[in-house]
User: What shape does this take?
Amino acid sequence: MSSAPISRFDLPKLADLPSDVRERIEAVQEKSGFVPNVFLVLARRPDEFRAFFSHHDALMEKDSGLSKAEREMIVVATSSANACQYCVVAHGAILRIRAKNPLLADQIAVNYLKADITPRQKAMLDFAMQVALESGTVEQEDLDALAEHGFSEDDVWDIGAIAAFFAMSNRLANLTAMRPNDEFYAMGRS
Amino acid sequence: MSSAPISRFDLPKLADLPSDVRERIEAVQEKSGFVPNVFLVLARRPDEFRAFFSHHDALMEKDSGLSKAEREMIVVATSSANACQYCVVAHGAILRIRAKNPLLADQIAVNYLKADITPRQKAMLDFAMQVALESGTVEQEDLDALAEHGFSEDDVWDIGAIAAFFAMSNRLANLTAMRPNDEFYAMGRS
Amino acid sequence: MSSAPISRFDLPKLADLPSDVRERIEAVQEKSGFVPNVFLVLARRPDEFRAFFSHHDALMEKDSGLSKAEREMIVVATSSANACQYCVVAHGAILRIRAKNPLLADQIAVNYLKADITPRQKAMLDFAMQVALESGTVEQEDLDALAEHGFSEDDVWDIGAIAAFFAMSNRLANLTAMRPNDEFYAMGRS
Amino acid sequence: MSSAPISRFDLPKLADLPSDVRERIEAVQEKSGFVPNVFLVLARRPDEFRAFFSHHDALMEKDSGLSKAEREMIVVATSSANACQYCVVAHGAILRIRAKNPLLADQIAVNYLKADITPRQKAMLDFAMQVALESGTVEQEDLDALAEHGFSEDDVWDIGAIAAFFAMSNRLANLTAMRPNDEFYAMGRS
Amino acid sequence: MSSAPISRFDLPKLADLPSDVRERIEAVQEKSGFVPNVFLVLARRPDEFRAFFSHHDALMEKDSGLSKAEREMIVVATSSANACQYCVVAHGAILRIRAKNPLLADQIAVNYLKADITPRQKAMLDFAMQVALESGTVEQEDLDALAEHGFSEDDVWDIGAIAAFFAMSNRLANLTAMRPNDEFYAMGRS
Amino acid sequence: MSSAPISRFDLPKLADLPSDVRERIEAVQEKSGFVPNVFLVLARRPDEFRAFFSHHDALMEKDSGLSKAEREMIVVATSSANACQYCVVAHGAILRIRAKNPLLADQIAVNYLKADITPRQKAMLDFAMQVALESGTVEQEDLDALAEHGFSEDDVWDIGAIAAFFAMSNRLANLTAMRPNDEFYAMGRS
Assistant: This one.
């Protein structure tokens, strides 16, 4: 199984990559013990690779009114709605680790309405799903509903922008038939 | 009308922006004669601004097997499916100019199946719409259908990646209630 | 482009048409400077032609609690939902002229929720879209919501009946692949 | 039950109606033994009444390559898809009578794919449903599929135009909460 | 017509059936004067037959806070939404008989929102349709809405469980192309 | 977390249950080391409990042309489409064990089109999903497509009947807000 292709598209050779791209890949390898396939698949296009991960980090790694676990909840819920195997499996693993909860990712992937989350987190996911699935219907009253749960204007931007970024990410993964690394499935389960 | 807000979110002051962001905005102002609102709305978050426009340019401005007009067709068709006013109006203008055709953008926005395009371009838009609307169903046979129209592997990536990028862009515009500049509506119509 | 077919079906010869049908066509030609293609396409069936335009005029030309511009808003919004190129382009032109507003038609065609309209007009379009897209769900409370915006019983009939009439009109245009005249695209834009 | 309202809108008094409208109503009363409610509900607007029934008769009563029973099949199938109680019940009765078949209307209303019809009639209903539900997707190849079953260009127009006319009719009935006369339910069942 | 096949699958011979299955079939024949096809079609699998009818009777025949007619309303409404010809026709007949109302079944099959039912029954069908069509969205507030109409916890279970059982039943009927007996169509109409 | 309620409905006391129901529960406890919540939730209604598990065992435990792992694939794929948390989590665990594959359940839950399955198994799941989501469209040609992959008439029944049974099961779980036991999440992952 581990020899299954990780992309429908040809992969670049590591040696041929620009040094900054190769260094980013080597850094994640060192940190995680393996290279998540998204790095190898997107490296085919270095400029797009740089923009993608820079955008990802700006939304997912910096300080925010949302915890890192909450941001991963948004990724898992919307990626499941988009039938994106890579993102649900990989970010499900990250969510388990960041929330220190082995159940939450699977609960949210199947039906976030029945997950072990707070009403505030449910409101967050309601809005993220609206942005993911029917963003044209977003009206001011939808943002007001978030404010009632204490979300600031910047928090609302974060929720919507993460749903928007993974709308792109899910489509790239589905376009390329990006395969989740086997390592992700069992991470954070015990 | 020109005094209507261009975003639901507070806008940054130009003077407060990092110099590279401000310079990009000034450059587009000089080139176009006005600042498309997307630059002002996204400048609220400089890191995301940089990644967004860098990603945009990598897909829309570089050499490709798709003409620039064809790439704009993908933007107009998928943005209309996502009910994104900003992108249909702004990129409709760009499409009219790049295709030197005053009718094509409106035709594609309403129903690309009845637009004045070639069978190859129709196949391109069929795939772009699949990526935009149900990317989880993309299978190898969908890519093979594009190959029959002469699209290379890199062309397929371009089609899918543009649909994916504007899946994000449309959601950001709908999140922020981004208003198209009045200037776009009449551009390229004569 | 102007030599593209205007219908999938054979067109009748003007000389062969019943005189009342021909006279109506000549009258519109004189008034508008060109013959909108809907007249030529539907003339294939004189009885249906007469009923169609008589119904159209009863709804769109007579006095009503809705302004003529408001009635065109209903046409543009619902025709866009039905992916009807002819009606969006032709009635978009009429809306620009009747509303003396070069932006409104494009705004409504893409997403009426973000158009420069009043709350009363938004309620009108909400109901028109419900009739257009899921009329089986219309209940008394939907009509009551219109009454709260000051719409009379006759206004409600007008809104619903216009949405219903263009449900037919959109389907006839899509059936026949009715092509919008080139003239419509630029009308009312300056 | 027979005292339930037949419309959400006020009904005109027969005595106040223009004589041609009143005469049409009296004629149908004489012929059928009762007045189908659609005549009373639409008489509120005499001009629309005249256009509606003139259009109806042009499609449903004249000679055509489709039998009268086949035309009623189109009405029942598409009206059911539009959740239009009046049209399914009233035209179900007419279909039973015209087809001399007490089962066909109920079969088609629930699922025409499993009705006792010929492959040619199934192709007819496939196309009628496409026009009713997603007319924007109609392409030349859909018409070609009908030609393979022996349908002429005029037959195709009839199929599509009947589906289009009842798209309007269904919406008017749902708008007005038009109630089917009790008489229709049992007609043609033995 | 009566010689049309009643299932896509081969039918077992009555003589080959286990005696309890055969006896159940003979009992219903004696009681109704004919054998509803569902008994013959499902007898192909005796264990599944036994479980199916035992489950059916537990929900539809025992005492409950819902009348037997109300339970049949649920069957007709949800089976119509699932395009199940057998269940709409057969249970439509039973509903007519149990409600002593010749109109109700057809009204509910086409659009229960416009049927001659009480507000309490409409709330019951709203919930049944939610369970039938999007059960993943059921939340506590949906059950609370039923409680406001006086439904007990056991009534709610009945509504949901009947919708769930016929979700299975409709799919079995559609899988097997189960044909409604001709007898059902006219039952209970006078 | 383990103290979260396992049903929206009151649970019966074990001591109050009929002895056959209690014995079935004690047997599964002995075999599995814990009682899957579905047994406790459904025990509220002993007759329905008996029919449900008898039906379940007839489809899932007996000999069949489908392997036990293949039958669980059908459960996981269709339960995910129905947003049924209990069934995806519980049967995901069983699938991992029966297929001796720690990845397959998560792959299928998110997008079976990209799972590590054979073309024959993909055809099986295509049909199961059609039965689960739009059974009214099943036609003979859909069964013929299965025959081409070597499925017998009895295999087709099994595929469709399992999809049908879990259509019921998913709705019961969503009705009751049935909570998956914590034990399921990690089972079969190493």
